[in-house]
Structures are given as structure tokens and as C-alpha cells.
Amino acid sequence: MFDTMTTTKIIGGLCSTFLVFLLGAWLAEEIYHSGGHYGEQAYVIEVEDADGDEVEVVEEVPFSVVYASASATDGEALWRGCRSCHALEPGQHGTGPALYGVVNRPVQFYDDFNYSGALAEATDVWSPEALNAFLENPRGYAPGTAMSYNGMRDVEDRANLIAYLATIGG
């Protein structure tokens, strides 16, 4: 089928193609870094007020203040992200436990749901502050929790959702 000369030509063609690609990559790298790899910066973009002396301090508002002005109506729209795993009817569980009356109730409230031990170690009662910390970063607040949610970053959204949950069965 193939004789020795044909096989040698095919291997030689592949090797020379590879060599051309290597040389092309080396040449492109030399052109891109024409002044050397660790030379001075070619130009500096001046930015106004970039001295670094003035650091803007962001004052964090306590959650109780944010929660006091929370909107349960806005929280109802945020509930859509939770209902794939939770239900609002008492005793009706999904992947997660029912959230009927969850605000200010004990963590392991339902006997017929298998809670992870990490939640009981984190807190005893789902106060608004505990729910806020849990919703911000579930795995950080209760390491080992079975909840796979990545967290809600905006404090106003968390406060609105907790305000909505407080109106359900509370």
C-alpha cells in the first residue's frame, strides 16, 4: 500500500509544517515584544485623582436599617428564584424545606425534612439577620450545607425577600 518513501515524505511534510508554525510563533512573539519582554512601559495614561492618597471609604449600612425600609412587594418578585426548590405551603417540601413562616422560626422546624447538620451549627433561629447572612453566601455561613445556591449579593434584594417571607405565615 504505502512504501517507505511515501511514508517518509508524509512524516517530513508534517514535521516541516510544524517547524513553520513554531518559527512563525517565535517571530510573532519577537515582533510583539520588540523592546524586550521586561522593558519600560511605552506610554502612561494619566488619570485625574489617581494619587492613591484618597481612598474612598464605603460606609456599610447595618442590615437592620436596610430591612426596616424593605419592600415585601419587591421581595415577591425575587421569590421566583427560590420556588424551584422551596414551597410556601406549610409542610410541603421540595428539594428544600417549606418556607412558610420561616422568619423567626427554629432552623430544624419540620420533623419530616432531613436538614443538614451544618444549619443547626450555624444558628438556632432564622432571624432576619441570620437569613440575610445565609442568603448572602450559604456555603460561607453554614459550611457543609446541602443548599447549592450561590447567594444573593445585593443587600436590598435580600432584605426585600426576607420582608416578603415574613408576610407569609408570620
TrEMBL record:
SUPFAM superfamilies in the cross-refs: Cytochrome c
Keyword Lipid metabolism: no
GO MF assignments: electron transfer activity; heme binding; metal ion binding
Keywords: Electron transport, Heme, Iron, Metal-binding, Transport
Domain Cytochrome c: 70-169
InterPro entries found in the cross-reference section: Cyt_c-like_dom (IPR009056), Cyt_c-like_dom_sf (IPR036909), Cyt_c_1A/1B (IPR002327)
Pfam families for this protein: Cytochrom_C
Highest taxon of the lineage: Bacteria
Protein name from the UniProt record: Cytochrome c
Organism of origin: Yoonia rosea
Segments crossing the lipid bilayer: none
